[in-house]
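Late entry, written up from scratch paper. The run itself happened at the end of the previous shift, but nothing got recorded in the book at the time, so transcribing now.
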Amino acid sequence: MTYGYWGRIIEVDIDTRTYKKIPIKDGDYRKYLGGSGLAGKLLYSDFDYKVDPLSGENPLIFMAGILTGTPVPTSAKSSVVTKSPLTGIWGEATVGGFWGPQLKKAGYDGIIVKGKSEKPVALYINDEKIEFIDAEGLWGKDVYETEEKLRQKTDKNAEVACIGPAGENLVKIAGIMIGGRDTRAAGRCGVGAVMGSKNLKGIVVKGTNKVPVYDKERLTELIKKFMPELKKNTQGLYDFGTAGGVQAVEANGDLPIKNWTLGSWEKGAAKTCGQKIAETVQTGHYACYACPIRCGKDVEVRVGPYKGSVGHGPEYETCAAFGSNILNEDLDYLCAANDLCNRYGLDTISTGNAVAMAIECYEKGLITREDTGGIELTWGNGEAVLELIQKIAYKKDIGKVFAEGVKKAAEEIGGLAHEYAVHTKGLSYAFHDPRAFTSMAANYATANRGACHLEALSYFAEGGAFPPELIGFNKQTDPHGYQHKGELAARMQNFMNLFNALGLCKFLIRGKASPEIIKNWVNAVTGWNLTSEEFLLIGERLHNLKRMYNVRLGISRKDDTLPPRLLTHDRKTGKAGGSLPHIGRILSDYYEFRGWNPEGIPTKEKLEELGLEELIK
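Output as recorded:
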């Protein structure tokens, strides 16, 4: 008997509407865990990396973590892995809520979707029963209505992962949304467009099993010991959600302002933060599966086409996207923009960066009112932002250009537009500035899916929220310097790769969750005897596996960089004024610590050390 995982996944051919249940070797779980780890192994080994991301040959892999669906705190996460249509390289999106735990309770660790259906279809998994549901009547519906209709067709207690109009229209910044109005998003890398290309509107899951745990008493004891520290250090998230950090981030010089050009926005931050949301539009809060933090907030939408509705409120990233980065101080328009993205199935990070770039292009005369379909794209114009979001979701006017992401938009617009496109490898930046904590420069440059803050979260370590000595880093660093930053980023990347593979929320590190603590949970659930060293080695293995997938596609040091704006523009004001990352020195430190060659390719010796010999050839 296995513990923590079932040892099987479902492979679906959406074209022929057939499926088979595939066993996975125990050794693969011990080597890659679950989530994006096991999904990465399957994508690398079993599928052609040269495929068109929007073709039927590109698999869409949903994978729950080893701990997903267990009593471990925050064990709600599942990963979506594919070749990204936005970047053309490794694509990974992670999502919480209740969908992943329901998939595990149905008796499966993951789903691989292949092919392309002739007509819109949905998939329903209910323990051993697997059905294909006609979804033609749902095509064109938004995420909220789709979730309601699919529950009516299946089970009122089922969990739904679906796309909105953006995914249907193959918008390359579209995500896969979970939980309906209590939205959680697998937002990044255009995974919603891959789902839309398959004419797959949704996947509904319902399970009645319990995920088996090897030593329940030991696990309960370990969790009980950890909980006081977690609750003490996440009280702010409980009170105000991730948006509660807007003012602190601004004070650290970490908040992007006016398309990443300004250094200070103190008054605006106070108007667009979680504390202000709690005072004004918040109607309640909720949690993902097995989560004591309860950072999810519901808000009332008070302007725009869905005025009066209630849904998931803006996270920190969305507050930055539709607040500071476009100079919008009107919280009502910020919440309405968030609601539109959730309904249409758009990644708020990529959409927010696209909107900021569009405004700057309009300001500089690179696009005109004729291009925008009559919208006056000016800084802080909330009404115009709502209109542009709709145009992006439906690929209308200039929205068609920005639906491709900022990199492709710059190529289409031409000229100085490239200066205003803030991305690495085609993925727009999450809203934490590497000029504030320069270890993030190493992370953004080398993160496997592009400009992803979550791949390292090293600003937590530099800012004092997580003690880096817990991962073996004991060196002194200057937030704006370059020494040891490559090593810190690499160590944090190794640790963070484990969270996605286990199905855990990374906010656990706010509770000082060390590799030792999490390793003990894994052993109690699975019955394994992992050491802390072996545990962190798995994280390193996963980062290198994903890097090698990208190496196949031509990624090397030439691609490991930051956009000109973040390398050369001094914002002058704010705590990070005067700071610019020394990317050359930082990368050299990073490659040396990783055991990669100067071109950023893992060496034969490193791959052998990690047990990835099969990747060498």
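The chain has a mean pLDDT of 97.
(Scratch paper discarded after transcription.)
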